[in-house]
Amino acid sequence: MKINFYRAVFAPVLIILAIFAFGTGVFAATDLKLNPGLNYSSDSNDGPLITGKNMSDGTINKGKPAYVIFYHRECYNSKRQARRTVELYEKYNGKVDFIVIDLDSPRSSGQSALVKSHYKNYIPHVTIFNKEGKVVYDKSGEVRNSHISGILELP
User: Fold this and answer.
1) Tens digit of pLDDT for each residue in 114-135?
2) How many domains does the chain have?
3) What three-state secondary structure class fits 123?
4) N- to C-terminal Cα separation, the chain
5) What CATH number did the domain enclosing 110 receive?
6) Res. 41 pLDDT band, cuts 50 70 90
7) What is the pTM of this model?
8) Cβ neighbours for 92, distance < 8 A, ≥ 6 positions apart
């Protein structure tokens, strides 16, 4: 009788703990969408360039490449790179972690650490980590998706 009680109580607790430990770990940004109101012909502040879920994440996970974009809202170059970022997200969703850092918004501690270690005060800025967590691209300015794809698809 005591054993059945322990099974009935502890089994569900262990299952819930396992779900939290393995299923909710760390999330990259998901469901990325481009702000439809962006004006690509000016440096106007059109609000966040990219929206989505888990936008405050800033954790680089080993085992999967990570693409990080740093941008300011009032930069037409950032707007164009944001459009490319969403296109890359649509292509690599689930295969690459995406971290979006809006420099005009409050940041999480993980995002702040990335800003401190990789952002060089020029926008847009893109940093790519390989699946081992090593930086393989870290440059400011616009970059074409074909170039980024070539880096993301390296073994």
Assistant:
1) 999 999 999 999 999 999 999 9
2) 1
3) coil
4) 55
5) 3.40.30.10
6) confident
7) 0.81
8) 67, 152
